[in-house]
Design brief:
The complex is a heterodimer of chains A (about 190) and B (about 170).
Chain A (H helix, E strand, L loop, with lengths): L1 H18 L5 H35 L2 H16 L7 H15 L3 H16 L7 H12 L6 H9 L9 H25 L2
Helix pairs in contact in A: 2-5, 3-4, 4-5, 5-6, 6-8
Chain B lengths: L1 H21 L4 H35 L2 H16 L6 H6 L4 H15 L4 H12 L3 H12 L7 H22 L2
Helix pairs in contact in B: 2-7, 5-6, 6-8
Classes of the chains: A mainly alpha (about 190), B mainly alpha (about 170).
Amino acid sequence: MTGIYLIFLLLSLVCALAGGNTHGLTAALLEGARQGVNLCISLAGPVSLWCGLSSLLRETGGMKGLSRLVGPLLSKLFPQAWQSMEIREALSGNFSANLLGLGSAATPLGIRAAVAMAGGQDTASVELCRLVVLNTASVQLLPATVAALRASLGSTAPLDILPAVWVTSLCSVAAGLLAAWGFSKWLR
Amino acid sequence: MAAIIDLLIPALLAVLCCAALAGRRDAYTLLITGAGEGLSLLKTIFPPLVILLAMVELLQASGAMTMLTQVLSPVCRLTGIPPEVVPLVVIRPISGSAALAVGGSLIARYGVDSLVGRTTAILLGSTETTFYTVSVYFGAAGIKRTRYTIPAALIADFTGFLMASFTARAFF
């Protein structure tokens, strides 16, 4: 992570110096930090609600049902993590919430799985990398935010992009997983 | 379909509460215990989020985003991504809210059913904010070495951009 942020920082500094717009850089940093807090606060409500719902799901056995439903696919992607019941349920919940386009529900479950899969180590395992790539590529059946955006801008059929979104989503997830698999073999 | 989703969550809550009662568990206690866990989870994603957004703001203020847009324009022209969408391609993996703002203005300017408008919508719907996901997940899990995750995720993003402009042409 340090490497990425170092690239961000150096890129910003070089661009600012080259473009001559160095003033306001510190203000921008502070403004970003303020936005980070705002984002966290606006996430707090939904995340807490979803955590409440997922604890209900867990305790009533709903998570077990869910993991049986998506198990055939996920157990192949995460054979090692699938051994643990706790991770299995978190992965299944994360995957299902992503499918429904419920980002703020998917994140807490995905993080729960990631924390358990990391197990205190500071190097990401192959399966943990796979989980993060899967979440960055987003498998979504119903892109609710975009549909709402299109509707608000006057689209009469905001959901007519669905087939295109599915094909695109599937291709990008496949490319990400394939790339991750290739890198894991190649950089061993 | 949107109506079904709207009903899904409240209905799920009702079913789960009934299931909890049937198992002689107090649904309300379970719900608030879970909600409490949400707050401690939020505490783990708070630091990476603040740092990420500070860096993103710096990238934008320094003109690095504009520079990246200029660098990527010729590449995108070769691959058939409409030039108008390039700023969105640059911002999409980095900032979710900025991508939504850029996307909204693109759709408004070129029209919901134009090629640019459709490409924008498909792109927004089928990709995620890569750096947000990576920093939050790895930040919360205490991972320092992310290995090949970011290159692989960016390959996924780029495939998404390509396919968005392709499907916007092919499907309509």
